[in-house]
Structures are given as structure tokens and as C-alpha cells.
Specification:
Number of strands: 0
Strand content: under 5%
Number of helices: 3
Order of helices and strands: HHH
Shape: elongated
Helix content: 40-55%
Structural class: mainly alpha
Oligomer: single chain
Protein name: Secreted protein
Region (Disordered): 31-50
Pfam families: TrbK (PF20084)
Distance between the termini: 77 Å
InterPro entries: TrbK
Organism: Sphingopyxis granuli
């Protein structure tokens, strides 16, 4: 392939690139979809004082075990009677 053919090929590719850039700039933006509405019905309750207190306890505490078991059940979506 000669030098003239390479220059012609580069010119063609450059022209195509410029055409695509101009088309992209001049087209109006596509309408954006609105954000989905989120209700607070599915939101999890804020951690209560029991969980805050139990985070720092290092010994066995029956109250903390019950609080963490309830939290685990709520996280995994289990019911109390399904065991």
C-alpha cells in the first residue's frame, strides 16, 4: 500500500470520526426516566439501644443473645415458628 493510499485511508477515517462527533453533539439529549418512588414501608427500623449496648459486650449475656437472634431473624426474613 502506497503512501497516497495511507493518507487517503486516514482522511476517510478522520472524516467518519468528525461526522460521528458532529452528529453526537447536535442531537438533542434523550429524555431521562424519572427516579422510582421509594416508600418507607420496607425500610428497616433503626438499631435500638439494645444492639448498641450489645456491640461492646464480650461476655455471654442472655438479653444480648435474644436481641441478636431477633436481628438475625429479621435480616434473613425468617419467622419464629419455622424451625
Amino acid at each position: 500500500m502506497g503512501r497516497a493510499a495511507r493518507i487517503a485511508g486516514a482522511a476517510v477515517l478522520g472524516g467518519i470520526a468528525m461526522t460521528l462527533a458532529l452528529v453526537a453533539v447536535t442531537l438533542p439529549p434523550a429524555p431521562r426516566a424519572s427516579a422510582p418512588q421509594v416508600s418507607g414501608a420496607d425500610a428497616h427500623p433503626a438499631p435500638d439501644d439494645g444492639l448498641r449496648r450489645c456491640r461492646t459486650i464480650t461476655t455471654a449475656d442472655p438479653d444480648c443473645e435474644a436481641v441478636w437472634e431477633a436481628k438475625r431473624r429479621r435480616f434473613f426474613g425468617e419467622r419464629r415458628n419455622e424451625r
